[in-house]
User: Fold these one by one.
Assistant:
Number 1:
Amino acid sequence: MSRRPSAQITGDSPAFGPILPILAEVDRISRVTVCLRPFRAAGPRMDVERVGNKTVIHNYGHGGSGWSLSWGAAQVALASALTALDSRRELAVIGCGALGLTAALTAQRAGLRVTIYARELPPHVRSSRATGSWTPDSRIALASAASAAFPAQWESMARASFATYQTHLDMPGKPIEWTDRYLLSDIPWEQELARREQEDRHGFAHYVQRIADITPPNRLLPAGATPFPTRYVNHTTTMTFNVADYSRQLIEDFQSAGGLIQTREFHSPSNLASLPQSVLINCTGYGARQLWSDESIVPVRSQIAWLTPQPEINYGIYFGDLIVLGRREGIVVQPSPGGENFGWNDDNEEPDFAAAEQGVRDVAAIYRRPPRP
């Protein structure tokens, strides 16, 4: 979970819907998925490189912020591409995940003819297995490794993405929607944040205070305002990405405007020579570690146990190192022991079913736990 603004605002309870219990039972697990976040200590790679007669604009390595920053990152990549295009105004995008789809659409809307080349398409890409929350600074960089210019670039990408997401609200299928989040703790939230900071052995950068004006406040709720049993319950609202519907919408928008998608696998940068386009945006995510021999990419593993959907569950819970999020395609249960340290440099993409079942039992225990005085 990305760190929230530190201010706690007390007072009247904010308006939120009924909090119905999640049916957290092991036999309701429909699937278990694993995602490898492509983390780079310096932040995303967004430079320009010549490969033979091709100009390659890199757009990968966004850690746990790929969906959140995708539209802003697409604008950065497009600006670089426009300076390299010839009169044909044709562009190739490599990869069909969050970064690839948004880069392709952004270029297409700027009047370019765009073809996506990808080994896999949603729902089989790694970004289809993301948690689905607006987390624009989640594992985006290390504070000690990011350049002095990066925080401002991050803010620009976050604001551009946020503005674009507001245009996707209330669309059929609810691909993007604002939903409630409840931050549960037995200690004051400021102390909980301090605990998380002490656990962070890597020194992840956090920039969310730079966009405090577009970040809903974190409000401490009065005792008894919710059925949750912890001493402290904080409330906020956050954008949720219902990734299955959202990905389908992006693909449909791209293809309906004349965009082409071709299945193609690349094993080295030299393979790009076969493409007819001279300018390419490389959005291969974790795949860039192998394709580009980029050892700066560190895999950060996360696992989700999916509970079958409950339409009445449209909220999320953060409790300790447990993340739970009601999405339209199912309920995300994501244990992360050790917080942001969890899954560091772990490239194992095999599901851990025992851990998945334990995570579901931990969710059930929240609703059975007696209230703290």
Number 2:
Amino acid sequence: MILPAGYFNIFGVLFRDITVAPGGTNTDLTVKFVCPSVSTKFVGTLVLSGNDPVHPITTLTFGAEGVPVGMRVLVLGADGTHYPVVDDIEVKSSRSKVNAHLRNVPLTSIEPPASWAEIRYHYMTALPPTADGEVYQLRVQVGNRKQVVNFALAPGEFRQLVITLP
């Protein structure tokens, strides 16, 4: 957890309890939860306790997924239905010589803890960052429906692209 500087005493020791003034005052705290490696999922909790008689203890659950520099593609129909199989996925970039063309791609699901949103039917791949304005082109096709999207990746970036087929 990253706390505002006011939560440290003059000796640099972190106060055990964070006190929020009465009367509806808000305090913003930043929680940084990082997955230490690619292709892994981690879950953590943060327990908040206070003098609220209705909710004296609140437990927040956090999760992280280690992802490579690259992209994830989710393919939806016009009605929002996820496609479990895509007939054709092509990713290409002329300068970095990326050219991946996959047919009849079964998309996989990420099974998170029950309280999180499930990512259904996705295709994920590592890609090198684009440089000097280089752009990747992603083409997805199911039956006679297709969509083309152009995108770039900054160093260290992971993009999740949602493709809605008409």
